Amino acid sequence: MTQKNSSPDIHELLLRLGYGEAGIRNIIDELDDLLEGIGFNELEQKARAAIDLKDHAGLINTLKELMKRLENKGIYRPDHPTGLIKLLVNGLNRMDEDIFAVIENSRISRKEKRKEQEFIASCAAITQLGYIILSRFIHEVKAASSGPHVFIIIDGSTPDSMIFVDFSIDSILEIDARLYEQRENKQKENNYYLKTLGSDDETSKHIAQYYASFHVTSGIGLSHNIHNNIGMAYDRAEMYENAIEEFNVALRLDEGYIEVLNNLAVTYHRMGMADKAIEKLREALSLRPGYPEAHCNMGNIYASEGKVGEALAEFEAAFTLHPNNALIHFGLGNVYLEQEKIPDAIREFQEALKLDPDHLPARSSLGELYARQGRHDEALREFQEVLNRDPELPEAYHGIGSVYYELGSFDRSANAWIRAVYLDPELLEHVPDKLLLKIKQGVSRIR
Question: Would you give the DSSP letter of residue 3?
Fold first, then answer.
């Protein structure tokens, strides 16, 4: 009989992480196959020996070998997630359904579907697997999150050091804990903020890029992150009640999870519950006063309600905290557009694109404003740039169709409108009457 690699404790750990009995057996079976395939028993023995000898260099080398073997098994391929990675995600879904299939059946473009599916199968899911494996031989494994980026922390070689085990970017670093200022929030949870490094070497740049600030949790693995990611996927699929459920589970696991409060606010706003959204953003700001995303989203909500003064105040607060954020410039552009300050709006959309050339909403908005000003060539260029990045975005075809119609190029206009309506049937109501029959016939032929 083949000896199984997962210990009896793994069952208890999976229960503690929130997985149900029905899914645990499948996870353990897949995990056993993976551990056997990478020769885990040998690695575990080396790791335990290194821990007993307080040989942290030996432990780090063993962990690097573990990462290498996992990579060879395709674990770091979110574009082609393994069955185990999918089980670790779907096993936490409160709706008891395949979130990857939910995304596949949503109305977003094919490119956005791939992006969402890869996101769900990447950072948090891969790190959850690492957390489960490391818990086999390391007494205390902590999870840390820095925005959407997550990693694992274990004790270093001295009381003043930490080892960052980062499965998502295949990196292991022993860090001097004195580089960080540690603060507790209202929930007495640990938050770390990087002090001035005083060095410009590659390691320092790496630390500043990925670990400038982070939030640490114990005992829940990456389950709170996975629930948050599932919630974001439901939001993209316009299944808002399901999104709220997942976000609330994430918050129950980690009350100090600022990003979840922000995501809850975005979803509540989409549902038309602006007051509830504002409440969540204020809660986020009470926990982290310098949180630019909360100010930015507060500005978006006020702008949508026509509260221009309040919106500008929030965007200015966000800009002070993070002047090189494309989302802030995009939000300011929308406020100026609401005021019909077209040159100011164009300037902000252009600034957003300088910071993030792939910000498609800013590029589409810029194209629409160029069209309004009669700058047709520039408008067409922006819409085409959108399609170069996402060939299935209906708004870009809508813009192209409208520009060509205004120019009297009705055949080109019709071709663009057909594609727009095919991708988003609700755009049919915006089709010029002169082209309506032709567009209906064209869409029918494609289908």
Answer: P
List the structure tokens of 273.
């519950």
Q: Mean pLDDT of residues grouped by 10 in the chain (447 residues)? A: 57 96 94 96 95 93 96 91 96 97 93 93 95 93 91 90 92 91 66 77 86 91 97 97 98 93 97 97 91 94 93 94 92 93 97 96 97 97 96 95 97 97 95 96 90
SS3 128: helix
Domain with CATH 1.25.40.10 in the chain: 272-352, 357-447
For residue 229, give every residue at least 6 positions away whose Cβ sits within 8 Å of its Cβ, in sequence order, or none: 89, 119, 120, 124, 125
Topology at the third CATH level for domain 357-447 = 1.25.40
The model's pTM is 0.89
Contact 39, 96 (CB under 8 A): no
Which strand (E) or helix (H) includes residue 6? none
Q: Are 149 and 167 in contact (CB under 8 A)?
A: no
**Under CATH, what is the fold of the domain 272-352?**
1.25.40
Both tokens assigned to 236: 């993209």
- State the number of CA atoms in the 13 A half-sphere of 169 facing the CB: 15
